[in-house]
Amino acid sequence: MAPGSGLGLVREKLAAAQGVVVLTGAGISADSGVPTFRGTDGLWRNFRAEDLATPGAFAQDPRLVWEWYNWRRELIATKRPNAAHEAVAEMERQHPQFWLITQNVDGLHRAAGSRKLSEIHGNIWMVRCTGCRRVVENRDVPIQILPKCTACHSLLRPHIVWFGESLAEEDLRRSDAALRSCDLCLIIGTSGVVYPAAGFASIAKEAGAFVVEINLDVTPHTSLVDVSLQGRAKDVVPLLVCA
Ligand code: OAD
Q: Domain containing 151 — which CATH number?
């Protein structure tokens, strides 16, 4: 992190804040060893997420899409929350008016103890029946390809929001309400290119919140936030929380 960064200011703002919202992306889990989507290590057999995480890709070749998710499940199953996930869980304990919005499907925030959260893109450990739509937890690693619903025997799909699909109404409503009423909004480890989450920082800013970005790189958020802290999430986020 560069000297003279706004770290001290952000610590003060967080300590004084009533309402706190944290938005996270793949960068917070990168420090646990989970590949990001737009980094080169996230590529599987040279497919991009946008090639596989779509209803069209699943309709055309469900085996291929399940093989990709099986690869991701095998990888994520070996990973543990890092100091940044733990610091976010600590913020929840310190701030009664707190909401975490994560785009990550890896479940690492829950594993770290976060409970007030919307997993707006779903959870890789949940599956949904394409027939009866029942949603159940499934932690099989490897998962049987192609997995079938035990109730109606239709094909199961990952309970993940794919490109071209809408977020759950309840997640959108809760996230929107939290963003509009918070004093401080932390945007951690997201490239800020996938909507609607890419628009969340602007919602908080326009509603009057102090908005902070923590990222390794410059993103579309960097020019609109009040403070941009460049560094690894696992190094920076724990420094923001008062012991
Ligand atoms: P991306 O892979 O697009 O972006 C990861 C961001 O994290 C980048 O801006 C990196 O600079 C930053 N980063 C990487 N390592 C970091 C570290 N150690 N500390 C801090 N920042 C770091 O991931 P997302 O923004 O989460 O959707 O992608 C958004 C959505 O696109 C995902 O949820 C996924 C994807 O397609 C679905 O699967 C539906």
A: 3.30.1600.10
**Cβ atoms of residues 221 and 67 within 8 Å:** no
Q: Model pTM?
A: 0.95
How many domains are there within the chain? 2
Residue 72's nearest CA partner among 124, 22, 149 is: 124
Residues involved in catalysis: 121
**Residues 77-106: tens digit of each pLDDT:** 999 999 999 999 999 999 999 999 999 999
Residue-wise pLDDT tens digits, 195-214: 999 999 999 999 999 999 99
Structural domain that includes position 74 = 39-78+129-160
* Residues with a CB atom less than 6 Å from ligand 1: 25-27, 30-31, 36-39, 49, 53, 103, 121, 160-162, 189-191, 194, 215-217, 219, 232-233
Distance (Å) from CA 210 to ligand 1 centroid: 22
| Cα separation, 18 vs 214, whole angstroms | 20
Domain match, 111 and 200 both? yes
